[in-house]
Specification:
Blueprint: H1 13-16, E1 28-33, H2 43-53, E2 58-67, H3 73-93, E3 101-109, E4 131-138, E5 159-161, H4 178-191, E6 196-201, E7 214-215, E8 218-219, H5 220-234, E9 242-246, H6 260-266, E10 269-275
């Protein structure tokens, strides 16, 4: 079962997405707001999305929906999911490639949403919590886009380091430059329909014992491998061809980690070729 766990930025920084506080390359975001019980993309939100669509440098998009405290938990979960799906459908309908959209998730009630937090009493709920966050990454300006995964490296029982799949610190959210490599991996899986791989996640920094940092109830390295798995499955790869595992910080490429580059290299994903 696909279990997306990536979380959003913007004004939810300190509550919903604390790992981004130390990020070196945060994703950009736009916020879309909805009326009570509404999930359709209306004119005000369409204008913002049209501006996003016009940006040809965007490499990946994540969509996260929320509801305010009005209604039951089950209803709000469904409402937040409808909001996210409707935003996705709008983007695709305007020509955005489905492959660019990695996450479409509804999180139900916004974490800060409660009756006692109301400030605007002309609103029965809290408009700022009836929203969708669209987080997106852009190509680095100096990116040549020339690095490619090749068929020659697909040798059974060997590991391949996905050199440009990296993560923000302390979470499983991809850095923007990762999306071009994720697409290359997807294309390899599509080109070789019998290829089976194990996705291996790693963490960096001061976890020198090899123990893994907890993230949303699971080891962080496991969550990073799962994020790659989710991307492939969402884009049509048979889950039976994929497995994933986390190795913590037990196999660092740079054991002493002197700078951010070395930490980024340790926050990585490798794939083990199981069958070709």
């Amino acid at each position: 079962m696909i279990n997306m766990k990536e979380i959003v930025l913007a004004f939810l920084f300190c509550v919903v997405f604390p790992c981004m506080l130390h990020a070196q390359q945060p994703l950009d975001t736009i916020s879309l707001f909805f009326a009570v019980d509404k999930s359709a993309v209306e004119a005000n939100n369409a204008l913002l999305l049209d501006e996003l669509i016009a940006d040809t440098s965007i490499t990946g998009i994540n969509i996260y929906g929320y509801a305010d405290f009005l209604g039951s938990a089950a209803y709000n979960q469904q409402l937040s999911e409808r909001r996210s799906v409707n935003v996705q459908d709008y983007l695709i309908g305007k020509g955005v490639s489905r492959e660019k959209i990695s996450v479409v998730k509804g999180y139900g009630v916004h974490p800060n949403s409660a009756e006692e937090n109301r400030k605007d009493f002309s609103d029965s709920g809290i408009q700022a919590h009836r929203m969708v966050q669209v987080a997106y990454g852009r190509k680095p300006q100096n990116s040549s886009g020339e690095e490619k995964l090749s068929d020659e490296v697909l040798v059974e029982n060997t590991n391949i380091v996905l050199e440009n799949i990296h993560f923000h610190g302390a979470c499983d959210l991809f850095l923007p430059k990762s999306y071009s490599v994720l697409k290359e991996l997807l294309e390899i899986m599509q080109k070789h329909p019998t290829l089976k791989i194990e996705i291996q996640g790693y963490i960096c920094c001061h976890y020198d014992t090899g123990n893994d940092q907890d993230y949303e109830g699971n080891p962080l390295s496991f969550c990073r491998a799962e994020a790659v798995y989710d991307y492939l499955v969402v884009n049509g790869v048979d889950p039976a061809r994929l497995s994933y595992v986390g190795f913590g910080s037990s196999r660092k490429r740079f054991p002493l980690e002197q700078n951010e580059y070395e930490r980024a290299m340790n926050r990585r994903v490798e794939i083990l070729i199981l069958e070709k």
